[in-house]
Amino acid sequence: ASGRVVEPFSAIGLLGPKMKIGDYPKNVLVNQTINLYLFIDNHEGHLMYYVIYAKLGNRSTMINENVSANAPILDRYEIILPHGENITIPVSLKIQKPYRNARLIFEMWIYDPVSETLRYHGRWVQLWINVTAPTIS
Questions:
Q1: Above pLDDT 70, what percent of the chain?
Q2: CATH number at residue 63
């Protein structure tokens, strides 16, 4: 059958402030805007409703393809995407307090029409960043 999706998948990618892989911020100030982009790609064979959670974790934050991060949510992004299409969306985040080795985690969740709930889709990207307090002169 032509047009059949052999191995359905969704992809998530993290792009730097210039919409390219790399050139990611490493050090930011408290409350400084962190500008990134998320790339979402749908090859599931049908329309998908994605929710991307931005979370603030650290070295001990556990995450894998089966377990989502138990970490504070900074923001969420909702995307409805037809099969075979991709989208790049801007992300602007601020971290409110100093944080060494902060781990920005972006998790992909999907809407399950059968259970009418969101479920973690086992895909995530991350960025390590240091957040420092501005020096008072």
A1: 96
A2: 2.60.40.10
